[in-house]
Amino acid sequence: MRVLVVEDDKDLNRQLVAALGDAGYAVDTAFDGEEGYFLGDTEPYDIVILDIGLPKMDGISILEQWRRSDRKMPVIILTARDRWSDKVAGMDAGADDYVAKPFHMEELLARVRAQVRRASGHAKSEIECGPLRLDTKTARVTCDGQQIRLTSHEYRLLAYLMHHNGRVVSRTELVEHLYEQDFDRDSNTIEVFIGRLRKKIPVDVIETVRGLGYRLSETPSPG
Amino acid sequence: MRFNSLAFRLFATAAAWTLLVLPIAGFIIYRLYRDDVQTSFDGQLLKLVNAITVDSMGSSGDAQPLPPSNLYEPLFEVTHSGWYWQITPLSPANGRKLVSPSLATWSLPSPAAKSISPDETGARWLNVKGPKGEPLRMVEVIDSLGHEPGKPTYSIIVAGPQDWLDHLVVNFRYRLTTALALAGLGLVAVTLFQVRFGLLPLRQIEGGLANIRNGTASTLEGELPAEIAPLQSELNALIRSNQAIVDRARTQVGNLAHALKTPLAVIANEVRADKSGLGEKIIEQTESMKQSVTRYLDRARMAARVGVIGRVTPVAPVIEPLVRTLQRIHQEKGVVINVDCPTEARFSGEKQDLEEMLGNLLDNACKWARREVYLKVEVPPSTSRARNRRIAITVADDGPGLTDEQRARIGKRGLRLDETKPGSGLGLSIVMELAHSYGGTCDLARAKEGGLAVHLNLPAG
């Protein structure tokens, strides 16, 4: 899952990046409105955390422009302006949620999880797929009730596939959504991680669709 | 009409002028009339005395004066009628004396004998008492027979009733006084009307200001006369600048909020991982700082509003975007917000404050509701008195609700009954403070749907 954080306060930005990174997200960051707008307009983020009071371009304008050019990723507004009129303006501009400063990091993370789930069409905080079960709150994966130990990259890969289960996910899409912008994008690494995952879970859960990508299927094909 | 009022000043000066001028005018008119009547009466007497003189002193051939004829005045024949004539010899004194029958045995005194000097026509005038004690006006002409010097001279006197004249003047004075008194009353009444009518625009301003105070109008409206139109535009400019000051204060307060809240968030997040006593202490302190910031920012916002000339906020247009936003925020839960708000409901106060109250209450209700949230706005019938009109707003949910003891404790600033639901815990107490600052009330009760019901009672606009 790739997150964009647009926040001009350097300390808060660093904290958000750290907390989201710990929670298993690939985080990109912008410190002003123009940079934030450009990133959100060109990169495929799974969620954006957007401050309203930004230098160069304010958050509401950024959001409106994204929505006008049909960028549909969930956006959580993070601002000190907590009047209801501000909230209404933010939601009307196209935000999906609103968090007022000062905030508890846990609460923000919970809202991020909820928005990501909702965007991929999952109603509950636990996503099931065959024998696999992903608890988005605790970032734990179990297989037939047994907890599976995963590295952070393995978790990111499996969580993304589980959020989009039943659909073919291309390698390019995986690269775009699992790594930060500056990461050395070598799609071979994806194959390496898929290979490692298959050793930890039933082999046939991750299905390779030749030439297209991978699919997580609830009812693994026999054989 | 109060003493210290424009109306009284205008009325009193106009009335005083009227009361001063009318008697003076009346006196002058009375004098002119009296002199006029006297002059014409005297003219008549003079005509008679001349006629008698011509008649009786007619020819120098006669040794004696002749009784006058053709006087056309029958009253000379009636005894003591008030009309008399008398011809008395002067030199020689043994000449013939003639008198009108009306004089009977009485005789008129000669003005010449009383050393009264003649006027430019040679007539002498005198007022005397008649045979019945009635006042008489006399005129005397001295002539000689045949109007020739050297012949015997006679005094010719004609007297008429002066009281008839006095009676005429008194009569006139009575009618004049009555007419002028009526005119005076009429003038006073017209002045009263004029003052009322002339000052009507000021009353209009008074009403307009009252409307602004109680919030039914935001500017001084209406077409005012040229003299006070500048007052109207100045007043409206003042109201606008007042509102601008409040808006600016709110903006500054918002900026302060932004400036303080971000560093607070940073501090709290920075030490959250620190499990030593220091970290906990700092978190505890930032929490208390956060609450202070919120509380005093709210206070500042309320203080900025106190004394501001009223604004009126229609309720329905505030509810609609809030419901839209909240249903989006609580989309996952699928809460249904049922709104029952008459379109004419108006709140006498700031839009932002109504938004805060309804937003916080609805947000709470959405957090706790199972499926449904109810918002009901009731307006009093329009017959109730304008000044004390209230609107009643109820926000209820079908959630678990609160016990009586919990309801009693809640509302204290910062108190959260359940730490598992997100939120700062300030929501309800902000609502209560806002409601109280408008002289309204905020009460908690058990909703018939099962959950918590919050009743807001606010001034209606």
3D architecture notes:
The complex is a heterodimer of chains A (223) and B (461). Chain A is an alpha/beta fold. Chain A has 8 helices and 11 strands. Chain A has a 5-stranded parallel sheet, sandwiched between helices. In chain A, strands 6-7-8-9 form a 4-stranded antiparallel sheet, with helices on one face. In chain A, strands 10-11 form a two-stranded antiparallel sheet. In chain A, β10 (206-209) and β11 (213-216) form a beta hairpin. The longest helix of chain A has 15 residues, at 105-119. Chain A is globular, with a radius of gyration of 18 Å. Chain B has 461 residues and is α+β, with helices and mostly antiparallel strands. Chain B folds into 3 domains: 7-168, Beta-Lactamase (2-Layer Sandwich); 211-310; 312-459, Heat Shock Protein 90, CATH 3.30.565.10. In chain B, α4 (229-272) packs antiparallel against α5 (277-305), α6 runs parallel beside α7 and α7 (351-368) runs antiparallel to α9. The longest helix of chain B is centred in the N-terminal third of the chain and has 51 residues, at 6-56. The interface between A and B is medium-sized, with 31 and 34 residues.
Question: What is the element layout, followed by pairings?
Answer:
The complex is a heterodimer of chains A (223) and B (461).
Chain A: E1 2-6, H1 10-22, E2 26-30, H2 33-42, E3 47-51, H3 59-68, E4 75-79, H4 84-93, E5 97-100, H5 105-119, E6 126-129, E7 132-135, E8 140-143, E9 146-148, H6 152-163, H7 171-178, H8 187-200, E10 206-209, E11 213-216
Parallel strand pairs in A: 1-2, 1-3, 3-4, 4-5
Antiparallel strand pairs in A: 6-7, 7-8, 8-9, 10-11
Helix pairs in contact in A: 2-3, 6-8
Chain B: H1 6-56, E1 84-91, E2 98-99, E3 124-129, E4 135-144, E5 153-161, H2 162-198, H3 200-213, H4 229-272, H5 277-305, E6 312-314, H6 316-329, E7 336-340, E8 346-348, H7 351-368, E9 372-378, E10 390-397, H8 404-409, H9 427-437, E11 441-446, E12 452-459
Parallel strand pairs in B: 7-9
Antiparallel strand pairs in B: 1-2, 1-5, 3-4, 4-5, 6-8, 9-10, 10-12, 11-12
